Amino acid sequence: MKGWNVILQIAKTHLTTKLKSTVTATIGVIFGIGGYITLVSFMTGLNDMLDGLILNQTPHVRLYNEIKPTEEQPVDLYDAFKQAVPIIHSVKPKQNQRKIHNALPIINYLEHNEKVLGATPQLKAQIFYLSGTIELGGNLIGVDILKEAKLSNIQDYIVQGTYMDLKNTENGILLGAGIAKKMSLSAGDRVIISTVKGDQFPLKIVGIYQSGIADIDNIQSFANLKTVQRILGEAENYITDINIKLKEISEAPAMANSLEKQFDVTASDINEMNAQFETGSNIRTLITYAVSITLLIVAGFGIYNILNMLIYEKMNDIAILKAIGFSGRDVQQIFMSQAMIIGVVGGVTGLLIGYALSLTIDNIGFHTEALPTITTYPINYDPGHYVIGITFALICTFIAGYLPSKKAAKIDPVRIIRGN
């Protein structure tokens, strides 16, 4: 076997004497890796943005009392009817109390659970917003705003004012952006809240909340938990929802199942609440990787074709090398070296170009009223994408170079010299 210095020198000579073919093959790898990095960075960034938009506003587990028909009807309690087939019409749901029984001890238990990051109480009320002659139906959610700010990113969606303004204003409200727009209200104005019983309360608008989801912004507002309890005339332990954030989101289904049995309440986990969104997100990720891998495979075919042609053009050189003592393995290593040089140069250059394109997209302005916290197109700079890119480039070029180099190693120099 010849030394690696000799093999690399011959490989370098082949690449530089056929510079046009070398550049074409390298561009193929650069295009594949650069396209992969740009596409996967943008698409995963977009997925992360949408996940954050939807999932950050959704608790990992939600505890509440759901109104539903009673599983055991009165007729089931009579032995005389057990052998009969009762036919009952117009069964109505049992009117359960919306309040979660022992909500405060449950929150205290959850806050000491090692799997729980935090638990926040909420009180949801159906109300009407009144301003002048305008009357709009909607929801008012009473929250512990400091806990909400700690466990969610609610502060990112407050486009006027801050969450501390709500904390410091007893009769304050963070009004939904859609409601504020329809009623021509802004921070500092007052809005009248009317309960379903007809009681009215004036609240000062301390900020505007805009989630980016029109269906929410058109009906939903936030106030302090005690303010909503006072508006409804309820005690301080009147809580309708407990939102839970876990340290590991994957434990949400098991935790929801456990809490539902333990506290006799309805528990929904994040997968159940966002099943359709989760499916869409998985499909987008699948499409991203399918397109990216296709780009890399196309680049690999380009390298294979170019090296194959290079071998036909270098038949005489291969015959001479074998005639002066180079073995078939030496010849194979020469062509494999050429493929790997193209892979390394093209792969690293592709990573740099992909990073530069991602940086360019990241600095392009993107402004929309629906997403006030987004100012540029989303990009994910996960180093794992770059490791996958260069690894795939080297694997593709290795496979693309292996088959032609194996063919070159089997060339009979006598047949080539006789043919000439």
From TrEMBL:
Q: Which GO terms describe its cellular component?
A: plasma membrane protein complex
Write the record's keywords in alphabetical order, separated by commas.
Cell membrane, Membrane, Transmembrane, Transmembrane helix
Q: Which residues cross the membrane?
A: 21-43, 286-307, 339-361, 385-403
The protein's matches in InterPro entries, at most eight in alphabetical order, are given as: ABC3_permease_C, Lipoprotein-release_system, MacB_PCD
One Pfam family from the record = MacB_PCD
Q: Where is the MacB-like periplasmic core domain?
A: 22-261
Its membrane topology is listed as: Multi-pass membrane protein
Q: Which family does it belong to?
A: Belongs to the ABC-4 integral membrane protein family. LolC/E subfamily.
Name of the featured protein: ABC transporter
Native organism is Christiangramia fulva
